Amino acid sequence: MEIEQLAHEVEEVSAVYAANNGIDRTDDWLILKLNEEVGELTQAYLARSGQARDKGLAAAELDADFRAELADVLSHVLLLAHRFEVDVVREVENKWLVWRPR
Questions:
Q1: CATH for 61
Q2: What is the pTM (predicted TM-score) of this model?
Q3: Which of 5, 28, 43, 74 has its CA 20 to 30 A from that of 15?
Q4: What crossing angle do the helices spanning 88-95 and 59-83 adopt, rounded to 10°?
């Protein structure tokens, strides 16, 4: 799946989630939600790496949590990019890929 299609589908899911839960997806909500998801990713990483409580989860469950939180963070980055009309691919090319070894 192309990133533009992924972003479109994430936007659709987020809109439905917000409507079903009475959430006003303001600019502030989007950035705060991303921050929340980064915190959850950090918690999942710490548990997975043995630096925090594993809450009785098996290694496979800790890995699954980590992967799921990565997906949440990426999805919220895509939501912010959509809201502010940022071409994420172009920005990654301009910021990161200019440093590719030739």
A1: 1.10.287.1080
A2: 0.93
A3: 43
A4: 100
